[in-house]
Structure formats: C-alpha cells, structure tokens
C-alpha cells in the first residue's frame, strides 16, 4: 500500500457520518499538510521570577500558577490515554502521537521547573496536583474511550486559552519575561496539536453511531470542563489566601480578573462552547498563522487584539 493510499484511507476511516447525523461522510478538518514540530525549549532555571511574577499582581499570578500546577499530572494522563490507542492507527496519526508525546513531556518538564519556583516563594501547590489526580481518578475503570473524551475536552480548553494568549498581548503584558516565554511556547504547541486527539477519537469511534459519538463527547466536555475550571478557581483562591487575602476578597478579585478585565473567560466562552455543537472539530478554526507568528521575534508576533 502506498503512503498516499494510506493517507487517503486514514481520512476516510477517521470520519464516518458527521456528528449531526448527516448522510455525507465528513473527513477530519485537520489540514492535510499540517505537521507537529517538537520544540525542545529549556528555560533559564537560574532566573528566579518574582513572587508576583505577573505584573506584580497577586491575582493574575495566582490564576496562572493554579493552571501551571495542574499541568504535569494532566499531561501525563493525556500521554497515557493516547498510548491505549496506538495499535492499528493510520501511519500519520501514529507519527503524530510520537510528536505529541514529546511535546507534552517537554511541557511537563518546564512546568515542573516553573512550579518549583512557585514553591520556592513559599506557596503550597502540592494540593493542586493532588486535586488533579482526584479528578482524573473519576475515569478509573471506565472504557478507554471515556478517557479519550476527557482528553478532547481538556485539550480544547488548552487550545482556546492558548489562542487568547497569542492573539491578545494584554494577557501577558507586564509579566516576567522568562515566565511569559514559557507560556507563549507552550501555547504555540497546544494550538499546533489541538486536532490530534479528536482525529484519534474519530478513528477509535468509527463504528459508533453519530448520536453516541456526539452525546458522549459533548456530555463529557460539559462535565469535565466545569470541574476543571471550578478547581482552577478554587486553587487560585487558595493561593491568594496564602498571600493574606480573605476568601471573600480573593473570590471577587479573581472573578473580576477572569470575567471583567482582562476577562479571558468571558472572551473565550463561545469558542469553548463550540465543543458542544454537532459537527465540531478543533481545526474548523484554522489558526496556524499564530504558530508562524509566535516563532518570529515576539515584537512582530503579537496579533492585534480582537
């Protein structure tokens, strides 16, 4: 079988009927020429970022610290989940799993180092990692496709946050340069591999009915995103309490940061909600231009605020 024939077969077997029950088979929306690139970045371990590394603002710092502390455990879950689907994959997807795994291992390494800096400032972030494990333990004993649906939901959340970081300079404006560089690098690769898990889902569930596929991934997306986002708020509030804020103060300040100014959650809500719609695919929003721009000198990379 030729390589081209394999790619053609991949596109057909990874599609099936559309989630909205349409009669015409729908291939993956991932651009055919798109490839994953492993950027093995190592950031300056000796550059001790300030305690309030984001604009000397404890609220912004707490939010990003909460997200960072959740990543190593979550990314290990993603890698383990995809490992269960390697057998019988079309060649391109099999190659991309290897690249995805390398990217996620690198992300884990750098966020472990970043989280250590956070701990060195006196913050207790161990409970955040434990909370992620408790959330992921809910998937124990369930079919492996359930874990894949969880990974779709969390990768979608990561991709839309990443798009916000790379399109609007306000989100990292004033942040410590080393810390900001970690987030931009990570965001670039999250966008780059945002469609892989969904394409594996299409292949793994190709014998499912359209309704079963849609119902499972939409329900899991709603439940797991609510739980993950709720836990990030809870943990950011906990970090602010470690800075001396009352729980009431921390809650109001954090909600104002997330929903009002700069308001990332408000701005990306409809992007997130796309996962609940029939016919969803991450690459129906083609933002490959962000990958290219983020790799140019950053002064030229920032996309204009929308």
TrEMBL record:
Keywords: Hydrolase. Pfam families: Metal_hydrol (PF10118). Coiled coil: none annotated. It is an enzyme of class 3 (hydrolase). Residues 1-11 have a biased composition (Basic and acidic residues). It comes from the Bacteria. Its EC number is 3.-.-.-. One of its GO terms (molecular function) is hydrolase activity. Residues 1-29 are annotated as: Disordered. PANTHER family: METAL-DEPENDENT HYDROLASE. This is Metal-dependent hydrolase. It comes from Altererythrobacter litoralis.
